[in-house]
Write a structure and sequence with these properties.
Number of strands: 7
Catalytic activity: ATP + protein L-histidine = ADP + protein N-phospho-L-histidine
Strand content: 15-25%
EC number: 2.7.13.3
GO cellular component, one term: plasma membrane
InterPro entries: BphY/WalK/GraS-like, HATPase_C_sf, HATPase_dom, His_kinase_dom, Sig_transdc_His_kin-like_C
Helix content: 25-40%
Number of domains: 1
CATH architecture: 2-Layer Sandwich
GO molecular function, one term: phosphorelay sensor kinase activity
Largest sheet: 5 strands, mixed
CATH superfamily: Histidine kinase-like ATPase, C-terminal domain
Distance between the termini: 55 Å
Amino acid sequence: MASLINSILDYSRLNNAYVELTYAWVALSHIRSRVLADIQFEAQESQTITWTEFTHDLNIQTDADFLIRAIDNVLRNALKYAGESCTVVISSHINDGNLVIDITDNGPGIPDDKLENLFNPFTRMDEARHSSQGGYGLGLVKQSLKLLGGEVSASNHLTGGLCISFSLPLPPMKAA
């Protein structure tokens, strides 16, 4: 019950912009290391999580703790709902001046008609998931990305599984 109350309070703070972000330059490899170190404790032995690396490190200006919490939230959902032997792959690339972080699993995915509401608070994909199992998590992710100046979206793979994509603006590149 305390967890649900904390989630409601967090969502309210995010939704009303009562959060002070601390922007700093941070290497994407630092975010990657922290995320992988944290989530390994939650993964079962038969679950695999990997984050493919850039060919070079990328520095981004963001609130690292805020971004890491959003990624962790999506990863915990993937581990919980994609199956006991799931594989989760995190990849990142640059597209149209944005850093895109894709979190993809090989689970059953979500019905296409439910994808639009996935990031709304208290949205449940099936009746087996009741409110004691959460309900604000992906709503928190959406609000977090919005405060960071980015967006989050979800899609299903043709071969099965869900992909949650974060898109964060990068500062313009300076001419040399």
